[in-house]
Specification:
Elements: H1 3-31, H2 35-40, H3 44-59, H4 73-76, H5 81-90, H6 92-107, H7 120-130, H8 149-174
Helix pairs in contact: 1-3, 1-8, 3-6
């Protein structure tokens, strides 16, 4: 497969993942805390949350199994290496939390299931509902937190920033693809 074709496939598939994740995020914001919607669809926040976790996990994966992740830009667009590394570094806490939760939910690697705890925001919510101390189930760090809709709501600003950066990256990379040297295809 030619370099331009690989680059085009990466940019096209990556842009679609970012676009779908932005759509899920927008819809999550509409249903988050909306008691009317939750009356008829009580799990709607969780459904969107899991979809967002899955897609963010694919975007920010460093696995060789994810063929259209952010990490793949470094191979096909060497001029993006520093930029991509900075994106990973700037958002390492959220990426770690997403990865932990994605692995737990979708990759069935629950070996650390009992190590995942809850954020302070979720513990405060539990405490107000049940008037009991839940401090022993508090996560040690952000990467050890289980995602809940409340936590996702609290991380929205940074997740939006992550997606804006990813969106800009693929758009900038379109300009780096050398379509001029691609063989002309005869059309009838």
């Amino acid at each position: 497969m030619e370099e331009q074709e690989k680059q085009s496939q990466l940019v096209g598939n990556f842009s679609e993942m970012v676009s779908v994740t932005n759509l899920f995020l927008s819809e999550f914001e509409k249903v988050f805390g909306n008691t009317e919607i939750k009356k008829s669809l009580p799990t709607v926040e969780g459904v969107y949350m899991y979809a967002i976790i899955m897609h963010l996990g694919k975007i920010y994966s460093k696995s060789s199994n994810e063929h259209f992740s952010l990490d793949k830009f470094k191979n096909l667009f060497p001029e993006t290496i520093e930029r991509v590394n900075k994106m990973y570094d700037d958002h390492k806490d959220i990426i770690g939390k997403v990865k932990s939760n994605r692995d737990k939910l979708f990759a069935h690697t629950d070996k650390d299931f009992l190590k995942l705890g809850f954020s302070q925001a979720h513990i405060d919510k539990l405490r107000s509902l049940y008037q009991t101390d839940f401090s022993r189930i508090k996560a040690v760090g952000k990467e050890q937190e289980r995602y809940t809709p409340v936590d996702l709501g609290g991380d929205l600003a940074e997740i939006k920033q992550m997606l804006q950066e990813a969106d800009k990256l693929w758009w900038d990379c379109i300009m780096l693809i050398d379509f001029e040297n691609k063989q002309n295809v005869k059309t009838s």
